[in-house]
Amino acid sequence: MIKKLLFAGALALAFNTMTAQVQVWKDDFEDKDISNWTLLDEDGDGHNFIPYDPSIAQNGQRNYMSSVSYDNDTQSPLTPDNWAISPAINVTGATGLSLSYLVGPQDPDWADETYTVYVSTGNTKADFLASAVKFSENIGDDPDALFGELVERTINLSSFENKEKIYVAIRHHNSSDMFLINFDDVTVKATTLAVSDVSKTKVSIYPNPTTEVLNVSAGSKVSAVEVFDMMGRKVSDATLVDGKVDVKNLTKGAYVLKVTAEAGSTSHKFIKN
Q1: I need a labelling partner for 136 at 20 to 30 A (CA). Which of 71, 245, 249, 270 fits?
Q2: Helix or strand or coil: residue 139?
Q3: Domains of the chain and CATH, by start
């Protein structure tokens, strides 16, 4: 997984303006289940998006949502027009909306895979094709992807503010005789949620600065805590025990604690002394 320096800039901006990105919806495919996505095999070849477990994961995780343009069993090329359409994503009251995801070829020597991501308030193919919010590329054109890495993409969704729900569609098309394209961590974020959701997401950490332990207080159940350095690199998947995070093994300096709770995710700067 490639962490762009933009992430560090976004963190700095978030702290300077006292705002934080909140996770509205995410699918990381770690449950190996994509049954909540609507799948369309528009080319009719019997192949579609699948949950895929590579032998060596590229981003520290184990599973992707993937589509093929070559059939290894028959050793024949495919011409996919495969669609994966997300379930409805509730964005009521959210502002500063964005969509991010990871994408990459399974084999960098066979990387000329074309895909398009669409976002719409409707969930039909016609809705997506008519949407002005879309992003298309041949992933083989990105040199970073040719190192066998998943690369991150972000799409501005500000045009969907004041909407009730949105859908995301991922389409694998205009490709043939390559291999496999992988998608991961499809995430919708916001900088502001509806008032009722913000109160549920409210998180505080203390003491700050700290030498050994951070206490974490949240308005809803916390499912994960992660520690990043100020360049946006994850340095620890921390463990929350009795509302406390052990940070004594960190070197002295500034860090970011990302707290994921039932109502969303927030990020908090802290100092380790």
Answers
A1: 71
A2: helix
A3: 22-190 (2.60.120.200), 195-272 (2.60.40.760)
Distance CA 158, CA 160 (A): 5
Provide CB contacts within 8 A for 65, sequence distance 6+.
27, 29, 34, 37, 49, 50, 51, 52, 84, 170, 182, 183, 184, 186
Q: Tens digit of pLDDT for each residue in 39-91?
A: 999 999 999 999 988 755 444 556 899 999 998 888 899 999 999 999 999 88
- Section 203-220 average pLDDT: 89
Q: How many CA atoms lie within 13 A of 123 on its CB side?
A: 13
pLDDT digits (tens, 9 = 90+) for 93-140: 788 999 999 999 988 888 899 999 999 999 999 999 999 999 999 999
Please list, in sequence order, all residues whose beta carbon lies within 8 angstroms of the beta carbon of residue 19, skipping any fewer than 6 positions away.
Answer: 96, 191, 192
**21, 30, 58 from 40: Cα distances, Å:** 32, 22, 26
